[in-house]
Amino acid sequence: MSKVLDLLQKYLNVPGTSLETLREVEAISELKTFAANEVIYREHENSRHLFLVVSGQIDVQYLLSDGRRKTLDTCVSGDMLLWSAVIEPHETNSIGICRAESELLSIDGRKLLEICATDTTFGYRLMSLVASVIRRRLQAARRQMSFINE
Predict the structure, then answer these.
(1) I need a surface site. Which of 21, 48, 116, 135 has the fewest CB within 10 A?
(2) Whether the predicted model's global pTM rises above the 0.85 cut
(3) Quick one: angle between helices 109-118 and 19-27, nearest 10?
(4) What are the DSSP calls for 3-19, one per residue?
(5) How far is residue 5's CA from residue 15's CA, in Å, rounded to a whole number?
(6) What residues contact 29, with CB distance under 8 A and at least 6 apart?
(7) The pLDDT value given to residue 141
């Protein structure tokens, strides 16, 4: 079994997902390594790949109106980045910066959506995972807003 398939089974193996579906996702995935302090993505970029953090730490930052950046979340092993790759308009709304050298599993978002359309049970469960990531980021933003207003 390949390392990528092992990682998919560990991080993306939602209940009821067939090995066949995971192998389809494996075929559109690749491991990428990023250096400490490397910017992975910026705001308002086209988001083409969904990332799963394998190792390291990625800060998710938002650009404030005064030009400062504020870290709202830090992703670690098993966390999902760039959910915008599977949600229209497929545009990033944050900045991703490696806090430490990091290894990410990159999955082609467009092709992943095609797999979701074929295996709708997998698609539903994947989108539930994406929704939980969005919820976590909204909660983090809300906590930060309460600090700003104090």
Answers:
(1) 135
(2) yes
(3) 160
(4) HHHHHHHHHS--TT--H
(5) 16
(6) 4, 8, 105, 106, 107, 108
(7) 79
Q: State the DSSP code for 86.
A: G
- Cβ atoms of 69 and 62 closer than 8 Å: yes
Q: What is the pLDDT of residue 39?
A: 97
Q: CA-CA distance, 109 to 122, in Å (whole number)?
A: 14
Closest CA to 12 of 86, 123, 137: 123
Tell me the Cα Rg of the chain.
Answer: 16
Q: For 137, list phi and psi in degrees, rounded to 5.
A: -70, -40
Work out the burial of residue 136: count CB atoms within 10 Å of its CB; fewer than 13 is exposed, 13-18 middle, 19 or more buried: middle
Residue 28: strand, helix, or coil: coil
Spans of the chain, pLDDT less than 70: 1, 146-150
Across the strands, what pairs with 95? 61
